[in-house]
């Protein structure tokens, strides 16, 4: 991945992709002093760019990291990272991390670095293949409590248990894992939020110990605009058999129907199809109908 041609944005300028390197003694690598974003450009426009950039700054603020650029500069750099690669449709990854000027838990004299790379990451499945749904395992790892980890930050450290959960699921032939929270309620997947459907109503857990995804917020708004009621409440695993449809949301995942979670089966249907369609229309529209 690091040996590609082209350029990316690194600390204020465009550099050759292959030369965008960090030292092995980087604080962000040893102590996870690192936050990032994941967003998509559609037709030359990054969907909810301002919201993603703002969340990057919020994530950094929560970790006590000061980003040496303004939000407008970072938003412009996200577009530049796509344009330099000649992309109109791309996945964009801004990352902020503490450098290698000192090596200790304390990071008082490290510099903050910012890099933004864009690459092509199409949705590999056409909508009808997607409607078959993906299969999820149930992870043994739980999302931590908000007083155990900075759960509202998109912080690299929080992804350690996500990669472990995803690998464990993949080893058993599943596409991804559903994670429970520290109380045992349904939380989310390893890189996407989760929704269920029962009697024409959407149910999703409140984002009180995991990322309140920008796609999650957009899908809730779109559902309400289309007269689909949305209930945010704690969900127990013993109610999973009462739901008929299930789907994941995320900037990378978009709206992805789920057919199975461990022993529980779902049949992606009208609500999955409707939300996939209206989300796709909104991300491709010149002006989003969603105000977050
Ligand atoms: N939860 C996790 C753990 C994620 O990594 C993501 C992807 N950023 C999401 C939820 C969805 O967030 P968004 O819709 O803002 O991409």
TrEMBL record:
Give me the reactions it catalyses. Answer: L-leucine + 2-oxoglutarate = 4-methyl-2-oxopentanoate + L-glutamate; L-isoleucine + 2-oxoglutarate = (S)-3-methyl-2-oxopentanoate + L-glutamate; L-valine + 2-oxoglutarate = 3-methyl-2-oxobutanoate + L-glutamate
MF (Gene Ontology): branched-chain-amino-acid transaminase activity
**Coiled-coil regions, chain positions:** none
Per its UniProt record, the required cofactor names are:
pyridoxal 5'-phosphate
Per its UniProt record, what Pfam families does this chain match? Aminotran_4 (PF01063)
Report whether Methyltransferase shows up as a keyword of the record.
Answer: no
Transmembrane stretches in the record are none
Sorted UniProt keywords: Amino-acid biosynthesis, Aminotransferase, Branched-chain amino acid biosynthesis, Pyridoxal phosphate, Transferase
> Which Enzyme Commission number(s) are on file for it?
2.6.1.42
Q: In which pathway does it act?
A: Amino-acid biosynthesis; L-leucine biosynthesis; L-leucine from 3-methyl-2-oxobutanoate: step 4/4; Amino-acid biosynthesis; L-valine biosynthesis; L-valine from pyruvate: step 4/4; Amino-acid biosynthesis; L-isoleucine biosynthesis; L-isoleucine from 2-oxobutanoate: step 4/4
For this entry, list what GO says about its biological process. Answer: isoleucine biosynthetic process; L-leucine biosynthetic process; L-valine biosynthetic process
Report whether Membrane shows up as a keyword of the record.
no
Function recorded in the entry:
Acts on leucine, isoleucine and valine.
Give the UniProt family note: Belongs to the class-IV pyridoxal-phosphate-dependent aminotransferase family.
Q: What is this protein called?
A: Branched-chain-amino-acid aminotransferase
Q: What is the lineage of its organism?
A: Bacteria, Pseudomonadati, Pseudomonadota, Alphaproteobacteria, Micropepsales
